[in-house]
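Lab meeting, action items carried over

1. Structure of the three-component assembly. Owner: GW. Status: complete.
Input record:
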Amino acid sequence: MADGQVTALYRRIYRVIRRIPRGKVATYGQVAELAGIPGGARVAAAALRVSTPAMGLPWQRVVGKRSPRSARISILDPVGAAIQRGLLEQEGVRLSEAGAISLADFGWLPTQRSGKKRAARPKARRSRH
DNA sequence: GCAATGACGCTCT
DNA sequence: CAGAGCGCCATTG
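Predicted assembly:
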């Protein structure tokens, strides 16, 4: 019964993915953890696998974590991978020749705000230099 | 209910 | 630095 009937867990995953801002990327593991599934990177991948265009998910922003500081497209189908790369570059994400994505530059740092009270951010108001 | 699967991730060679 | 191996977790057959 996977026809239009997506598991509640998957829906949580989709919800996290929708929060990824344009020009940034998140890893499968990161998405899974934010969805409440520590170590469930493959589950996040499965959720995307069964997703449909109608869901309007920014699927291209979810990538595989290759090293602590670098990520890369993990789609098997070379065509789909090329499409993803194009979409990412289109929104400002730079990929090296080898397809490496710098997490330091484009990795999404989720600003906690899911129901819990967010910590006050007494950031000094410094505008011009 | 058990066995297989995968758009993963980390470690060891 | 590239490749092989093993562990993870929920969905599917």
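2. GW to write a short summary for the group page. Key points so far: Residues 2, 7, 9-10, 32, 37-43, 46-47, 50 of chain A lie near DNA strand C (CB under 10 Å from a C1'). Chain A has a mean pLDDT of 89.
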